[in-house]
Amino acid sequence: MNHILKTFLLGLTLLIVPGTTALAQHATPYLTINGGAALSNDMSLEDSAGHYAAEFDTGYSWGGAIGLDLGHSYPQIGTGRIELELTDRVLPLKNASFTTGSDPGDGDLETISIMFNTIAEYAKTSHYGTPYLGLGLGAAQVSLLETTVAELPMIDDDTITFAYQFFTGTTLSLGKRFELDLRYRFFSTLDPKLTDALGRNVETDLGIHDLTVGLRLSF
Q1: Contact at 8 Å (CB) between 5 and 192?
Q2: Per-domain residue ranges for the chain?
């Protein structure tokens, strides 16, 4: 685990301190596109009238990243990558649950995030792929878009907040320049604060699970 931690720390340093980018002069740049399913935890909402919860149907996630593969340039820390990632997620509102019962909902939850990721890879010796672990920090716009409950307006608002994610997966070689990326990701933010249709402040929470397939092109 030490080389994984060291890779995380190096990745964060390369991203945060511009002067250290010279360390990555021998790294290989790459481009990734990905897409898949997004599943949300039930969202807890609190306003001046009390608590309620929102449930969402399975939605979709898609996005891309540009990054640097550090390869074996730094054997003292193991192999790894750093990248800048943009992701959009949309999940339809299914229903909202109150103390009096549950009512059908409509509208969407959408998150648009930009994340700095640092990724630690195990040695590329397996014929079955290269497992990896990743950590990302960044910002996200969280929106509840034209949501209604029992055909009555609920929330149509957005906010920008700090975001973080943890992910794991494996890459499979498709030749010299292409790799298939299979990933599970947990994405969350600090509690978003929105305004509902009655002008009340609403504090929410957010937790989304992504299952994606990506294609990576190295240059």
Answers
A1: no
A2: 2-218
Q: How far apart are CA 110 and CA 88, in angstroms?
A: 7
Position 204 scores a pLDDT of 97
Helical segments of 17-103, H only: none
Q: CATH classification of 2-218 is 2.30.110.10, yes or no? A: no
Q: Which of 83, 69, 79 lies closest to 120, judged by CA?
A: 79
10-residue averages of pLDDT along the chain (219 residues): 52 51 70 98 95 98 93 65 96 96 97 95 72 95 97 97 97 93 98 97 98 97
Q: How far apart are CA 179 and CA 119, in angstroms?
A: 15
pLDDT in tens, 149-174: 999 999 999 999 999 999 999 999 99
**Burial group, residue 16, by CB count within 10 angstroms (0-12, 13-18, 19+):** exposed
Structure tokens at 190: 């600090």
Q: Taking the model in full, what pTM does it have?
A: 0.87
The DSSP result for the chain, as a single string, is -HHHHHHHHHHHHHHH-GGGGGGGTTPEEEEEEEEEEEEEPPEEEEETTEEEEEEE--EEEEEEEEEEE-TTS-TTT--EEEEEEEEEEEEEEEEEEETTEEEEEEEEEEEEEEEEEEEEE--TT-TT-EEEEEEEEEEEEEEEEEEEETTEE-B-EEEEEEEEEEEEEEEEE-SSSEEEEEEEEEEEES--EEEBTTS-EEEE--EEEEEEEEEEEE-
Q: What is the pLDDT of residue 71?
A: 74
